[in-house]
Specification:
10 strands; 668 residues
Length: 668
C-alpha cells in the first residue's frame, strides 16, 4: 500500500519526502537486464558461453525485446533441422551443434535468410516472420551494444535503453491508468534512477568503467536511495508503515486504509514452518497437559487472538505518532467497509453517529488521470451547469486530441455506436473440424479465437505438437523407434531436468510415447497420416487434416490423437462435433466411413479409445442441421455467448464474456 499511496500523491502533485524511493536495481527486471548486458562476458570458456546463453534466453522474451518465446523455439527447431539435413547430405559424420538463442542474437545471419524467405511466401507465415524479425533485430542491437558499447556507464546504459525503442510506448502505457500502468511506471522510474546513479558515479569515479559500475550494483543487495547521492533531500509528506514510523512524531498523522480485512489483518502467519511455536519455546510459553507434562499451545483461536493483539499494538503505535491531529481514512462502498479501528477512533474522538454508523464524506475524484477524466465525463453529462459541462467537454476533447486513450469517447463503454454493421458475411465459409466444434459450443469464443484474440500456445500444446510429429513420422513405429524419435526432439520442449517440474514433464512425455506405441500395435493395417480432407457440407467448406486415416474392413476410420489425460470430456463421444465434422467431410468426398475414434494417450496405465459410430439416418440428419446452424451463427454480425461447463472450462475470454459474472457489464 505504501508504493501505491506514494504514486497516488506524486501523480497528484503532492510533494513526497525523499522525492524518490530507494531502488534495488538488481531485482528490477528492466534494470537488471540492462546491467547484465553491460557485464556480459566476452571470453570463449564454457562458463562464459553458458552465461551468454542464459542471458540470451532472458533477453528475447523480456519486455525490452518482446519476442514470442514459442516462435523463437520453432525458429530454432527449423534452423537446427535444416543444419542437420545439410550435414547429412554433405556426408559429415558428426551432427552439427544445435543453435541456441545466444547464436540468434550474436549472429543474425543464422536466421535472416530463413525469415526473408518466409516473408516472400506471403500469407500467415510471412506475417509471423515479420513479427518475429522485429524483436530479433532489436535483440541483435542490444547484444552488440552490450558486447562493445561505450566505456562510460551513463552513455552505455542510455545507448542500450534507446536501442530497445520502448520508451514512447512505455510512457503511454504508464499514463493510461489501466491495470498495467503501475508496472510501466515503476520500470520507467527505475531506469531514470539508474541513469541518475550512473551520472553521480561517473562524477565520483572519472576513470571508472561501465562494467565496474554495473558489477558494483549487481553485487550490492541494499536498495540505493538516489536522492542521498546528490546530498539534498527535499521535504514533503512521509509515507511510512507503522513499523517505519516508530520513534518519530508529527503534528498531523493520517491513518489510511482502515478497511475490514486489511487493518486489522487477522490472517494467521507462519503456518508453514510454524515459527510461532518456535517463538513460544524460546519465550517459555507452554501449557500443562492432563498428564502433567508441559506442551505447546497450538490453538488456532489463541493464535488468531495473538495476531489481533499485535495489530492493536501497531495501531496504537501509529496513533500515538501524532502530536495534534489524526485523520482516519476508510472507504465504504459495495465491496469495501471500514474496520473496527475506524469505529474505535471515531468513538474516542466523540464523532456523532447516524443510525449508529460512523458517517463518511463524499470524496472528490482521485488525483489521477483516470479520476480526472471520470470527473470531467460526469460534469459534461450533467444538465445542471451548461457552462461547466461545455468546459468539461472541451477539456476531454483536448486530451483526446493529445492521444490520451481514456479520454477518447470510442473507448467509453456504451458510447461510440455499434462497432459493426447489420450486414452478415456473404462470402464462402470455411471451417476446420475443431473450429466447427468451437463454433457450435460458443459462437463468441469461436469468433474471438478466429480473429487471433486468443493467447499463445502453452507447454501442453507444444508437447502435443511434438507427439503428433512423432506419430506422423512413424505410423507403425515400434516402442524403440518412437522413443528414439522423442529423444532426438525432446530438447525442443525446453524441460529443465534440474527441477522437479522439468523431470515430471519429461516422464509424462515418455509415458505418452509409450501409450502411443501401445496403440499403434493394435492397428496393423494401412494407415494414412496427416491426410487432408476438404468437402462442401450444407454450404460450408469443411477443411482439415486428420491425424490418422485407418483402413479397416468396413471402410476408413478417422482417428484423432489426444495427449491429455482426462477421459471425461470424451465419454459421450457420439456427441463429439469434431469427429462428426470429419465424418461429414469424408462422406461428402465419397468415402465409406466406418466411424471415428479418439485415442487418448495421456492416461497413466494404457491408452483409452472412444469410438463414434458411423453417421447414418437420423444421426446424419441431425449433424447436417447443426452444420447449417453453425453457418448461420458464424456469418455474424452478432455472435452469441453460450456458457456451459464444456465451453467455459478452458476459455481465455471469461473476463469480457457478457454471459459470465466477471465479464458482465451494464450500461445505464
Amino acid at each position: 500500500m505504501v508504493v501505491e499511496t506514494r504514486r497516488y500523491l506524486e501523480r497528484g502533485g503532492v510533494p513526497v519526502a525523499g522525492g524518490s524511493r530507494a531502488f534495488d536495481f538488481a531485482t528490477q527486471p528492466t534494470t537488471r537486464l540492462l546491467l547484465d548486458l553491460v557485464t556480459m562476458p566476452t571470453g570463449q570458456s564454457d562458463t562464459d558461453a553458458a552465461v551468454r546463453r542464459e542471458l540470451a534466453e532472458r533477453l528475447l522474451p523480456s519486455p525490452l525485446v518482446r519476442a514470442d518465446a514459442l516462435a523463437v523455439h520453432r525458429l530454432l527447431r527449423r534452423l537446427n533441422a535444416a543444419r542437420a539435413q545439410a550435414a547429412e547430405e554433405a556426408g559429415e559424420e558428426t551432427t552439427p551443434i544445435p543453435l541456441t538463442m545466444a547464436d540468434l542474437v550474436s549472429d543474425p545471419q543464422t536466421w535472416r535468410p530463413d525469415l526473408e524467405q518466409a516473408e516472400q511466401m506471403g500469407g500467415k507465415r510471412a506475417r509471423a516472420a515479420v513479427m518475429l524479425a522485429r524483436p530479433l533485430e532489436t535483440a541483435v542491437r542490444l547484444w552488440e551494444l552490450g558486447m562493445s558499447g561505450s566505456a562510460r556507464p551513463q552513455e552505455r546504459l542510455w545507448s542500450l535503453w534507446e536501442a530497445s525503442g520502448v520508451a514512447g510506448e512505455w510512457r503511454s502505457r504508464a499514463i493510461a491508468s489501466d491495470e498495467s500502468s503501475g508496472w510501466y511506471d515503476d520500470q520507467l522510474d527505475a531506469v531514470v534512477a539508474l541513469l541518475r546513479v550512473a551520472d553521480v558515479w561517473e562524477q565520483r569515479n572519472p576513470a571508472g568503467s561501465a562494467v565496474r559500475f554495473a558489477s558494483e550494483l549487481l553485487a550490492g543487495s541494499v536498495p540505493i536511495d538516489t536522492i542521498s547521492r546528490v546530498g539534498v533531500r527535499p521535504g514533503g509528506v512521509e509515507v511510512l508503515t507503522p513499523a517505519q514510523a516508530m520513534g518519530r512524531h508529527w503534528q498531523v498523522v493520517v491513518l489510511a486504509g482502515l478497511q475490514d480485512g486489511a487493518w486489522p489483518n487477522l490472517r494467521l502467519r507462519d503456518r508453514i514452518l510454524r515459527a510461532d511455536l518456535l517463538a513460544d519455546v524460546g519465550a517459555g510459553r507452554v501449557a500443562v497437559g492432563e498428564d502433567g507434562r508441559e506442551e505447546l499451545i497450538d490453538s488456532t483461536r489463541s493464535a488468531r487472538r495473538a495476531v489481533l493483539d499485535d495489530e492493536y499494538r501497531l495501531f496504537v503505535a501509529a496513533l500515538t505518532r501524532a502530536r495534534c491531529v489524526v485523520h482516519a481514512g476508510a472507504v465504504r462502498s459495495e465491496d469495501a467497509a471500514p474496520s473496527v479501528f475506524l469505529d474505535l477512533v471515531a468513538r474516542l474522538a466523540g464523532t456523532p453517529r447516524e443510525n449508529d454508523i460512523v458517517p463518511v464524506d463524499q470524496v472528490d475524484a482521485p488525483l489521477s488521470l483516470s479520476g480526472h477524466i471520470a470527473d470531467l465525463r460526469a460534469r459534461a453529462a450533467s444538465p445542471d451547469n451548461p457552462a461547466d459541462a461545455q468546459l468539461a467537454a472541451t477539456l476531454l476533447a483536448l486530451m483526446a486530441r493529445e492521444d490520451v486513450l481514456s479520454a477518447q469517447p470510442k473507448r467509453w463503454l456504451g458510447a461510440g455506436g455499434t462497432p459493426t454493421t447489420d450486414e452478415e458475411y456473404a462470402g464462402e465459409l470455411t471451417l476446420s473440424p475443431s473450429q466447427f466444434e468451437r463454433a457450435l459450443a460458443c459462437p463468441l469464443r469461436w469468433f474471438l479465437t478466429t480473429v487471433g484474440a486468443d493467447g499463445p500456445s502453452n507447454a501442453a500444446a507444444s508437447l502435443g505438437t511434438l507427439i503428433h510429429a512423432v506419430a506422423e513420422e512413424h505410423p507403425h513405429g515400434t516402442p524403440e523407434e518412437l522413443t528414439e524419435a522423442l529423444e532426438a526432439r525432446i530438447e525442443e520442449l525446453g524441460y529443465n531436468l534440474d527441477t522437479w517440474a522439468g523431470r515430471h514433464s519429461d516422464r509424462r512425455a515418455r509415458a505418452i510415447v509409450e501409450n502411443l506405441a501401445s496403440y499403434l500395435v493394435g492397428v496393423p493395417g494401412r494407415v494414412d497420416v496427416e491426410q487432408k480432407v476438404e468437402a462442401q457440407v450444407e454450404g460450408v467448406t469443411i477443411r482439415g487434416r486428420m491425424d490418422r486415416l485407418e483402413y479397416v474392413d468396413e471402410g476408413v476410420r478417422v482417428t484423432d490423437l489426444k495427449t491429455g489425460g482426462n477421459p471425461d470430456p470424451y465419454r459421450k463421444v457420439d456427441e463429439n462435433a469434431q469427429l462428426a465434422a470429419y465424418q461429414l467431410a469424408l462422406l461428402a468426398s465419397g468415402e465409406d466411413v466406418a466411424g471415428a475414434r479418439i485415442a487418448l494417450l495421456g492416461t497413466k496405465k494404457k491408452p483409452q479409445t472412444f469410438d463414434q459410430k458411423p453417421l447414418q439416418g437420423e444421426a446424419l440428419a441431425q449433424w447436417r442441421n447443426k452444420v447449417r446452424e453453425v453457418a448461420e451463427s458464424a456469418r455474424g454480425p452478432y455472435f452469441e455467448a453460450r456458457p456451459s461447463d464444456a465451453a467455459c472450462a478452458y476459455c481465455s475470454f471469461d473476463r469480457l464474456c457478457p454471459a459470465r459474472e466477471r465479464g458482465h457489464k451494464v450500461v445505464e
